[in-house]
Design a protein that fits this description.
The chain is α+β, with helices and mostly antiparallel strands. It is built from eight helices and seven strands, in the order αααααββαβαβαβββ. It has a single domain, classed as 2-Layer Sandwich (Muramoyl-pentapeptide Carboxypeptidase, domain 2), CATH 3.30.1380.
């Protein structure tokens, strides 16, 4: 089963809940030597989210949405996944095409999936090693080898993740948690990572 943008645009599957929170912005002084991109982040993002050293071209293209999305991710209060790991998964390019942050209307759909990844980390007693992929823009997705045009990554409900254990261990644990009713969605095992999504129906590959 794959994502149909036309059907998905209105409602989440039954049982999905968005995670909302508020987080105060820290007022930090701007160092004289800071680059324009770094200066922007120091003024505009929560102190707990370090967004320095991201690709300047990508930073400029995201504009004000970047600190807003960092604030949203921080509000999820994850313990095994950092906001920076999630943002790094967006700041990539394939075939000369940069990925982007998801449209704001889709932000809330990633919360439940990241909560599942966070729970996997808690069960393993490990932090996530890398968030390989989350949202993919249509143009970027089209240049990812093996990606389907209606991938669930385009709906912002899917995450590919690595922990410092064998991917098969992560995949098995994700399916175990799903069997316990922690979430409903897809779990895919790959040689280097595990795919987890919260589409609302259970699928394995």
């Amino acid at each position: 089963m794959t994502f149909d943008p036309a059907r998905f645009s209105s409602d989440l599957p039954v049982g999905r809940r968005s995670v909302l929170g508020t987080l105060g912005l820290a007022g930090l002084a701007l160092a004289a030597s800071a680059s324009p991109a770094k200066a922007f982040f120091i003024r505009s993002t929560p102190a707990s989210v370090d967004l320095a050293d991201l690709p300047p071209e990508w930073v400029k293209s995201q504009g004000a949405m970047l600190p807003e999305y960092a604030k949203y991710l921080a509000s999820l209060k994850l313990t095994r996944v950092t906001p920076r790991q999630v943002i790094d998964a967006h700041a990539k390019q394939h075939g000369g095409v940069w990925n982007s942050l998801p449209p704001k209307a889709l932000w809330k759909y990633m919360g439940p999936t990241l909560k599942v990844v966070d729970r996997i980390g808690a069960e393993l007693d490990l932090p996530a090693k890398e968030i390989v992929s989350v949202y993919r823009s249509p143009a970027y997705n089209a240049r990812c080898r093996g990606a389907k045009s209606n991938s669930w990554h385009r709906s912002n409900v899917a995450a590919d993740v690595r922990f410092a254990v064998r991917p098969s261990t992560v995949t098995s644990l994700a399916r175990k948690l799903r069997g316990q009713g922690v979430f409903a969605g897809g779990v895919g095992g790959y040689g280097g990572f595990t795919h987890v999504d919260t589409r609302g129906t259970n699928v394995d590959w």
